[in-house]
Amino acid sequence: MELAKKNIDEQSLGQLTIQKTESKLYMSYITVAFVALLIGGLMGLLQVFVRSGRFTLPFGIDYYQVLTVHGVILGLVLTTYFIIGFHFSLMGKTVGISTKQRKLAWLAFWIMVIGTVLTATAILLGQASVLYTFYAPLQAHPAFYIGLAMVIIGSWIAGFVNWRQLYVWKKAHPREKSPLLAFMVTINTLLWFIATLGVAAAVLIQFIPWSLGYAETINVLVSRTLFWYFGHPLVYFWLLPAYMAWYAIIPKIIGGKLFSDSLARMSFVLFLFFSIPVGFHHQLTEPGIDPTWKFIQVALTFMVVIPSLMTAFSMFATFEITGRRKGFKGLFGWFKHLPWKDVRFLAPFIGMLAFIPGGAGGIINASHQMNAVVHNTIWVTGHFHLTVATTVMLTFFGISYWLIPHLRGRTLTPKLNRLGIIQAIIWTVGMTIMSGAMHIEGLLGAPRRSSYSEYGGGEQVSEWIGYQLAQAIGGTILFIGIILMVYIFIKLTFFAPKGDEEFPIAEEEPDAEQTPAFFENWKLWIGITVALILFAYTIPFVDIIQNSPPGSVPFDWPIGR
Amino acid sequence: MHLHKYEKIWLLFGIGSLVVFLLVLGYGAFWQGTHPQSHGITIDPNNIESNEAFKPENLGLTQVEEDKYILNIAASAFYYDLGKDEDGNAVRHIRVPKGSTVLFQVASKDVVHGFNVAGTNVNMMVEPGYISSLETVMKNPGTYTIVCNEYCGIGHHMMYATLEVYE
Amino acid sequence: MQSKEVSASKDKEKNRQDLKGTLVSVSILGAILIISWVGAYILFISR
């Protein structure tokens, strides 16, 4: 009786109840992510130890093998699985999922798992120490590439199911605007699909035939260009789910309303437009790409800053309006009274703060000739440990504190909340030390992706090693944070008391301005996105192919095969 | 779609800053020639010696004018070939006077490498099939480590040399 | 469709929302972006 009443309440708010059969699906994706966190985090710990120069790996394990596991499992496995699990949860909550759709989602899951196992096996047998960017002509075992292709194909099926979910809902609700979170999930899966076409083409057309011996040589620059066509939108695929939580969930947690439904949608549309035609800013110091086209993509990269500027304003405004409505006065009264003791707010909030230096660093990285100051130095590693490993991860942790108990029919207890706060603080301290040391060491010229080396000695190098010691300290603190997070995950999944944890979704103001209908014009958004990609890539890509050098034969001995 | 007055101010200010950044970068790149290296000159990756600059006898430092030098380097896993000295020993240390103009030319014999004179703006990807080149004035004296900063295999961190800019 | 007058009065109401704290906050953020960028640019020029 009471449950029935609850369902009606939720439905009147446009929210559905997540069934047990669904939550099993969503939890499966999320569980893989947390297993990945533990393994990948351990690899990170080993790396900072090795690079401090005070530790060598046992059993002849190679540093670069550990580095490959770290990059693949955290950059590709953890993120993709958590995001797909989160996407499905949001869609299940806002538009619903049919039995058939759920079965397809399971198919996607298992294809991804088989792919992940294939890739992991190749790496663990030492047959694929090529790092997560797998730059040709270093050649891994074919299983590495085939596994990656399966992960991508599985993720496509998951995305297609999301689109179908929204489509079915729209049919049933003509003339209604799509729920904000469903709209955002659709944008992110579109972004992912369009972006992964590049890496899928590289893997299926170039790498797999070449690694199986059907093709003698590979076009190195084409493969790199296809990779980075994917590589930059990849980081936005990580970031947008965090933005979903910031725009549509955090306001509810702090007791406020949506700042603006249309502005949130607008920023997501801008991300779709401008996060793809910008891959050259990862290739600025490469010899074979025309500099004018590099500069054009730099300009497009700067465009993608704009939706983040909008987001920053929306966040502060949400906090201020909510605080003022509660009666807090003065310039910063609203700030003092934010719910600092609620980890569902605190963890994502620290994530937002980390995005300020993260964003500043990102603009520097993309600044054409200035890229020479930082390219492939450990500054870059410091940069993405702020963006993905702090902004995105802390927001994902913040989501987990309510999503996991909601899916498991449990509650976030005050004790677990307190542990979560400690976790967020440990993470902040560890990352400030580690990422800070990486940034400074990078400006001094030290390379990323390198095992411990004294490079023949010298003053410059001894200075670097000091910062590497600091990174080992920061990395150790972070690993403690990971252990704590995994403990919280296990508690929330299996042991927290039974109950109803809220699925917080912010509502609009009763007198909110109506969202314009053109936001549902998907053909327009896809058309503009494709046009921008064609503009940014056609001429330079044709140029790359027409002026190609002879292809490269494979090299497997450098990676110890 | 409505924007709050302050949001308009903020976006104008933000976009304005980005435009200024781009103008500064564009002026440097297109008028002062500080583009990142991009020459698109190809070479046979299986036979870089077919190019005059990468014949064994032409590797290393060559003075071409009073203050002008060319430094040719053959990169391979996990070694920078900087030529040989008079005694036939491999050169590991390069010296140039402060203020000299150096043209760096690097080509790879095998996989992708990096070439970074750490602490300077000489920072290039080195890819099989292309000659990476950058001309710059070495204005700050000191001893710099040249490091391979793109992963090239298990000996990647052993790939280095040094460059000294003396007063 | 809303009439022009209604939306105009709403505009005014929205603008009355006190967002001074937000403006100050984003200004600090903007200053951080500019200072870091100029710092990196100076480093680039000096090298």
TrEMBL record, chain A:
It comes from the Bacteria. Residues 29-550 form the Cytochrome oxidase subunit I profile domain. The chain crosses the membrane at residues 26-49, 69-92, 104-130, 142-161, 181-208, 228-250, 262-280, 300-322, 343-364, 384-404, 424-444, 464-490, 524-545. Pfam families: COX1 (PF00115). CDD domains: ba3-like_Oxidase_I (cd01660). Its main location: membrane. Keywords: Electron transport, Heme, Iron, Membrane, Metal-binding, Respiratory chain, Transmembrane, Transmembrane helix, Transport. It is found in: Membrane. The keyword Transmembrane helix applies. Gene3D superfamilies: Cytochrome c oxidase-like, subunit I domain. Belongs to the heme-copper respiratory oxidase family. This is B(O/a)3-type cytochrome-c oxidase subunit 1.
Automatic annotation (TrEMBL), chain B:
Residues 17-167 form the Cytochrome oxidase subunit II copper A binding domain. Coiled coil: none annotated. SUPFAM superfamilies: Cupredoxins (SSF49503). It comes from the Bacteria. It catalyses: 4 Fe(II)-[cytochrome c] + O2 + 8 H(+)(in) = 4 Fe(III)-[cytochrome c] + 2 H2O + 4 H(+)(out). Keywords: Copper, Membrane, Metal-binding, Transmembrane, Transmembrane helix. It is found in: Cell envelope. PROSITE patterns: COX2 (PS00078), COX2_CUA (PS50857). This is Cytochrome aa3 subunit 2. It comes from Ornithinibacillus xuwenensis. The lineage of its organism: Bacteria, Bacillati, Bacillota, Bacilli, Bacillales.
Automatic annotation (TrEMBL), chain C:
Keywords: Membrane, Transmembrane, Transmembrane helix. It comes from the Bacteria. The keyword Transmembrane applies. The chain crosses the membrane at residues 21-44. It holds the Pfam family CoxIIa. This is Cytochrome c oxidase subunit 2A.
